[in-house]
Design a protein that fits this description.
single chain, mainly alpha, 12 helices
């Protein structure tokens, strides 16, 4: 019986609380709404915080409290893990208060939101590119920030995601036996992301693509394409003399070198 009574009391308290909040939303007392928004924010009740702030921010636009209220709004969306809204709100914040006390953290948080919604490598990478741009802007604005190293690490992570997407595209060309397209895609990626952790793998795939392209070329084109393969082999070995792909690379070298020394082309099909 006592348990049922407790449940009833809890329900009544909740209903009363909801009723009070609904009255607050309809209230025209903006100072009260501001005070309650801060109270909800401190309690981590971010949905209520943003609902109230949406109503009162225009009212306090030109006041000394505007920066702090807008900051609470952006932080609340982030607290809800609504990174799309948080990102746009942080970006609006730093445009409105570029030299405010939260300017440094605001720039970082705007980029961090794009980082958090960056998609898997196989999907569209617009947010990944936005995050890279955001972190680079941060580093240009605040080169001595304590967050600088964190930004650089995140940029590397994001670039690796772009490289992985590029690698997947190149691998698709490779699997379809479109070796010229694969080698071009890999060359472009290696130029753009020279320090990627996938560098060895991509350089091997590029070398193998050049070799396969030479193997399947018309006879009158094979010599120059085998020579391109040989040049790429020396570049690969100079950078990775003890590569995990050493056996395959050695086979490519032997066949390429044999062709170029003999000067007698195999029968090509393309």
């Amino acid at each position: 019986m006592r348990f049922r009574l407790d449940i009833v009391l809890i329900i009544l308290v909740l209903l009363s609380s909801c009723g009070e909040y609904e009255k607050l939303l309809k209230s025209t007392d903006f100072d009260l709404k501001k005070a309650k928004a801060k109270e909800y924010y401190d309690k981590g009740e971010y949905v209520k915080t943003t609902e109230l702030l949406t109503q009162i921010l225009p009212r306090f636009r030109a006041t000394e409290e505007a920066e702090e209220l807008n900051w609470m709004n952006a932080q609340s969306y982030f607290g809800m893990k609504d990174y799309f809204m948080a990102g746009s709100t942080f970006k609006a914040f730093i445009e409105q208060f570029p030299f405010g006390k939260h300017a440094e953290e605001g720039n970082y948080m705007a980029a961090l939101c794009d980082y958090n919604i960056s998609a898997r490598p196989e999907l569209d990478q617009e947010n990944t590119k936005n995050a890279i741009e955001g972190f680079n802007i941060f580093l240009n604005k605040f080169p001595n920030s304590s967050r600088a190293e964190d930004c650089k690490k995140r940029i590397t992570d994001l670039q690796d995601k772009l490289v992985e997407k590029s690698y997947m595209s190149a691998k698709l060309y490779y699997d379809m036996e479109q070796y010229k397209a694969a080698s071009i895609a890999l060359t472009n990626s290696l130029k753009e992301y020279a320090n990627t952790k996938y560098r060895e793998k991509m350089m091997y795939l590029k070398l193998n693509s050049l070799f396969q392209y030479a193997e399947l070329s018309y006879k009158n084109k094979q010599k120059e394409r085998y020579q391109a393969t040989l040049d790429d082999y020396y570049s690969f070995m100079e950078e990775f003399p003890k590569s995990t792909y050493s056996r395959d690379v050695s086979t490519i070298f032997q066949k390429t070198n044999k062709f170029l020394k003999a000067g007698i082309p195999d029968s090509g099909v393309k």
